[in-house]
Each structure stands twice: as C-alpha cells, then as structure tokens.
Write a structure and sequence with these properties.
Layout lengths: L1 E5 L4 H13 L2 E6 L12 E5 L5 H7 L5 E5 L6 H13 L4 E6 L4 H9 L4 E8 L11 H11 L8 E6 L5
Parallel strand pairs: 1-2, 1-4, 2-3, 4-5, 5-6, 6-7
Helix pairs in contact: 1-5
C-alpha cells in the first residue's frame, strides 16, 4: 500500500512515518520544510514542497491509496478542496486528517459533502513521554491503525491525555 503524508517535519510526523515504514507501507512525505532529520529508507520518498499547487498535489497522488494530512496543511479551504478533488480524480478513498488548532466541525462538514472515507483525529495535550499520558508515539500508532480500520470512518475522534469531567 502507498501513502501520501502531508505535514511538517515535527515529532508526531516522525513517529507516524517510522510506524508506517515499519509496517511496510511505501510512503511519500510532502513537507513545506527542507528536512535532513528523516532517516533514509527504501520505502520513503521525501518531497520538499514550499508551495503546494493543485498540479503538484495531483502528481504526488499517483499510485497512492491513502492520504494522511497533518493539521497545518488544512489551514485554508482551497487546499482542502484541492486535496479532496485530487483524491477523487485519482480514485483515492481513504483520508486521515490530524486536527489540532483548526475547527474540526467545519472540516467535518466539508468532508461530509464528499464520498471519501475520512477520519478526523483531534489531538489535545499530547506528551513526549507516555508515562505522562497519551504520547505523540501513541497518536502515531493510532493513526497507522486507522489506515485499514473502518470503525471511525466518516467520524471525528479525540485523542488526549486530559481527563474531562
């Protein structure tokens, strides 16, 4: 299976990429930042894309079965539309979005109008150390599991270390 992952070269993305590669997924990582921090891997292609156009996005989706988008990429509505349009044009059904700062209810409303099999994962107060609660590594493992899991398709899930009363 081939994934397209769009995100920053941040801790959660590193954990996700490591887990996805460990499972055996071929992965294209689109990032607006030049990064040397990722270790080379025969199943990983890193593409530096400071300006992501519709055409570049469409080219990156060649042969992809699943798209994973970290929150920073979904800051503007045009990009959301471009991602969903390209996915539909390439017959890609599965979309996993990690949302932190953005209004996930607006994103969910927009995705409900598509025929995509989407899951929005909201994260809140994640930790670097699992002994303090849900870690970024835990989130990354959950994300990789969602690639084939159908339980949360067309829904939003909250992953947090905080206890709500």
């Amino acid at each position: 299976m081939k994934l397209l992952v769009m995100g920053q070269a941040a801790k959660t993305e590193h954990h996700f990429l490591r887990n996805a590669l460990h499972v055996g997924y071929k992965t294209v990582f689109l990032t607006p930042e030049s990064t040397e921090a990722l270790r080379p891997h025969h199943n990983l292609i890193v593409r530096y894309q400071p300006l992501l156009t519709h055409d570049r996005l469409s080219a990156a989706m060649q042969g992809v079965q699943v798209v994973v988008v970290m929150a920073r990429f979904f800051k503007n509505r045009k990009l959301i539309q471009s991602v969903t349009q390209c996915m539909l044009a390439h017959d890609i059904r599965r979309l996993i979005v990690v949302a932190d700062e953005l209004d996930q209810s607006k994103l969910a409303a927009q995705l409900r109008t598509t025929s995509l099999d989407w899951t929005i994962i909201q994260n809140y107060e994640l930790k670097d150390d699992a002994t303090l609660g849900v870690s970024r590594a835990d989130l990354a493992t959950f994300m990789v599991n969602q690639i084939t899991e159908v339980m949360h398709v067309r829904s939003s899930v909250l992953v947090t270390s905080r206890l709500f009363s």
